[in-house]
Amino acid sequence: MNVFRLTGDMTHLASILVLLLKIYATKSCSGISLKTQELYALVFLARYLNLFTDFISVYNTVMKLVFIGSSLAIVWCMRMHKMVKRSYDQELDTFRHYFLIAGCFLLALLVNEKFMFPEVLWAFSIYLEAVSTIPQLVLLQRSGNVDNLTGQYVFLLGAYRALYILNWIYRYFTEPHFSRWIACVAGLVQTALYADFFYYYFLSWKNNAKLQLPS
Amino acid sequence: AEESERHDEL
Fold first, then answer.
1. Segment 75-134 of chain A within 8 Å of chain B by CB
2. A9 in Cβ contact with A78 (< 8 Å)
3. Domains of chain A by residue range
4. What cellular component terms from Gene Ontology apply here (chain A) (predicted)?
5. ipTM of the complex model
């Protein structure tokens, strides 16, 4: 464990807490893409299959449970909770994310570290996470104005993977045979997708103005 | 699996 990875995990946890706060405090999920939440739930379920078979550390196990539990709770909330689901931007959240799932699964079958079921699913979860934010970014551009908590949620979600890239660079130089090229390339793509959001987020922070994404 | 191959990251 290094400071980049720990900070990255805490940033990821913070993004989930901000999202839970928004949904709980405002009883609304306006501006949040249900499709991105479903993709993230799938990412965690596919990646953390080794939760009970491969114990790494208490921290690792606890965080996996928190990520799986929170992502499923958010999807449940947005689908079932009568107050919350009323505020869901159904007509804006129309990105066909099933294509993302199919494409990432095909890619995982072709490009993986070992052609074994757990490894293919792990690669699938890495590729899927890289593109899982697309429905959310599309929704933000369509919905124009972004409320503070939603903006912070997306910012933290993008920042955590950028910190993981620093973690991979650090591990590459400090561990003899460290190679995570699949996660690295996918992580770079994932972070690059946030580039324009980061730019407008920075502008809104610098000008102390409302976060506006050009539609 | 060898330490480095295990997926020890979240």
1. 113, 122
2. no
3. 3-206
4. endoplasmic reticulum membrane
5. 0.89
